[in-house]
Amino acid sequence: MTSTRRQVLSQGAAIAGVASAGFLASNASAQTSKLRVGLMLPYTGTFAQLGVAIENGFRMALNEQGDKLGGREVEFFKVDDESEPAKGIENANKLVQRDKVDVIIGTVHSGVQMGIQKVARDSGVLSIIPNAGLHAATRSLCAPNVFRTSFTNGQPTQALGPVLLAKGQKKVVWISWKYAAGDESLEGFKAGFVSGGGTIVKELGLPFPNVEFQALLTEIASLKPDAVVCFFSGGGAVKFLKDYAAAGLKGKIPLYGSGFLTEGVLDATGTAAEGVMTTLHYADSLNTPRNKAFRLAYVKTYKLQPDVFAVQGYDAGLLLIKGANAVKGDFTKKVDLYKAMEGAVIDSPRGKWTMSKAHNPIQDIYLRVVEGKENKVLSIAAKALADSGAGCKMG
Ligand code: BEZ
Question: Is 90 helix (H, G, I), strand (E, B) or coil?
């Protein structure tokens, strides 16, 4: 071997040694430094309470682990996304580029989720969706680094159609906000209702987050359907339920909905929500030790009753804990991290659920009725319901 070649080799080995020492050092510091968790949620506007409940649930899950993920301390970074789709990309980038988060927990609104989805796909950052049901997130735009702990918009309403048909309510009016969540809830409802012989006599809509319901309620009264079916949530749901009762429709035309209608609102609605039936993947009254323990702990910690949003946030925490534990907090081990999350069985207050190939929960959907301040479970409307995952090229 010539001296020049020997020199090159020994220099190369030295460089490699330095580089690998550097890598080991940075890798070790990556595991000892705090894990950076971004919360992108609505803290103002009609969905503000939903954002707070999700954060509460998420923090509660981590708190049960000594506030650590895979042995690492956690640092939080928060952005109020205001349920404003136009700012979705900008807000997600604040967390990814400015705050350098390891994971984004967000969000509630399907339109804003489009922004997170784009940033997650472009940057590769791990993203856990604790609410937004946007179909594309786990269908055509599915991605290995995007997981959902909530639902697709069509899941709850798909289970509602057969409930109405069984009651002989075959002609209904649909009403919702006109954006992805409303449109896709309707799509799910049609799949379970129209296919079984039901007719939607009119589809009514108004832009999000508008709550001027009066003219639409007058139209419903003149149409005299067998029932009204809707998608609303948060502050808008409170207003809709109160206006429906004030318009004299309650007790005359039965009201049904995707279960978000009666989540987190029962203190504010008074008797306006009494008797309203909905379908959802959670019910306050689920009589399991898991749900009872969760509810007790949540009330003790936050002095508030939990709702489905708190459960979805809690489950986002449980899912992240499973992944983080599998890689001992080293989020650079993406293959093992995602594998653990894909295979997780989440022991949720809603009941155990698993992840579909497209990364969306396979879960039971309950029929519930409002009794006092509670969404009381009546039956399982759909067992282990999976979203189609149509167009997802990942699985
Ligand atoms: C959504 O925009 O996906 C959504 C918002 C509130 C409740 C349920 C779904």
Answer: helix
Would you say residue 395 has pLDDT above 90?
A: no
Q: Is the CB of 260 under 6 A from ligand 1?
A: yes
The atom number, within ligand 1, closest to the CA of 111 reads 2
Distance 205 CA to ligand 1 centre (A): 15
Rg of the chain over CA atoms, in angstroms?
23
- Cα–Cα dist 95/37, whole Å: 9
Domains of the chain in start order, with CATH, are 33-151+287-359 (3.40.50.2300), 154-280 (3.40.50.2300)
The answer to whether the CB of 232 is under 6 A from ligand 1 is: no
Contact 349, 314 (CB under 8 A): yes
Torsion angles phi and psi, residue 125, rounded to 5:
-65, 140
Say if ligand 1 is within 6 A of residue 132 CB.
yes
How far apart (Å, rounded) are the C-alpha atoms in residues 40 and 9?
49
Residue 34 DSSP code: P
The CB density around residue 115, as the number of other CB atoms within 10 Å, is: 24
- Residue 23 to residue 16: CA distance in whole angstroms: 10
pLDDT single digits (tens) 273-306: 999 999 999 999 999 999 999 999 999 999 999 9
